[in-house]
Amino acid sequence: MSRGRSTEAELALHGGRPVRDRLLPYGRQWIDEEDIRAVVGVLRSDWITTGPMVARFEEAFAEYVGARYAVSFSSGTAALHGAAHAAGLSPGDEAITTPLTFCPTANCVLYQGARPVFADVCRDTLTLDPGAIRRHVSPRTKAILPMDYGGQPCDLAEIRALAEQNGLLVIEDACHALGATYQGSKVGSLSHMTVFSFHPVKHVTTGEGGMVTTSDPELRRRLQLFRNHGIDGDGRQRQAEGKWWYEMSALGYNYRLSDIASALGLSQLRKMQYSLSRRREIASRYTAALGALEEVETPMVRPDCESAWHLYVVRLNLERLRVGRGQVVQALRAENIGASVHYTPVPWHPYYQRLGYTKGHWPNAEGAYERIVSLPLFPAMRDKDIEDVILACTKVIHAYRK
Ligand SMILES: *Cc1c(COP(=O)(O)O)cnc(C)c1O
User: Is 90 exceeded by the pLDDT of residue 226?
Assistant: First the structure.
């Protein structure tokens, strides 16, 4: 790293030369020729939706996470909706969740006419704090909806114990955490239902898609009904059995994943091992380089967990900087580093404010929000990309340090 040339240089935000010429996004898909062949194969086959690939993808996915069943959906958000329905959430019920998440984690509770109750996160991991959950349990509570922030599993043993004591279901939003482990077990096998997303920035992509894993046959049945209009079985099964007749027994949606998407997912799943190890490698290179800066706090992973590293989130030590987090993100973007912020606390959004939620109840989550910056992290990043991120961070921090 030619420190004199680059890190002392004028920030691109102030008219200097950017660290790189093209924007490096914070996340993006990684598609190879095998994936493309898998999709083309389905396009040439008899079934392009709800054919044999859906079941194959579900089986392979359940096996990968160590759950008995996996039920696919058209998006992670649809999968959350399905899980909230299967949990029986309805008007008058409450579900306890985290403010520091992508809004669908809480929205799925609203879809069911129930009320999300936000509890604070742990200061170190930014995942739901079991002590805070306990303080919010009421006679109306039906479910706990934790989220594995950044790819690090939440405190699953304690959350599970709390759920058992109070007769609650755990719906774990693991959209960040495919491949993560908690006390030696894979995420996806540890909660009543675990939800995954296959959006292009996630570990496995199907374009749009999602999955719920469970080991409970009754939850599985409800999930399957919900994603298919509340109708048992599907057109292909009926064709195979020579049946024309069907019954709708619940109000469901069309939230099915197609065979085209499932073939892509199945092919993507085969590359998880490389994808995870590349994410871990990038994270450890960031930590080695940025840990040296006093203005930056690098992410921690608890010793009984392996993070899946969906995000690499640093926290700025604002006492040592002349500017706020917003300007640091702007400056990184001007250097063509797609820094981002995950997330604006959900109850701060105008829609939630109109529902009557107010700010200031979650000091850890709201305090972290003012400091967090997500750096680019995805397996297709080249070594040069990693160096650019480190160079740009160092440049921006040097320029704004007190
Ligand atoms: C990506 C994501 C979702 C939603 O997934 P979609 O597939 O985009 O609908 C939900 N929760 C979290 C935490 C996510 O990161």
Answer: yes
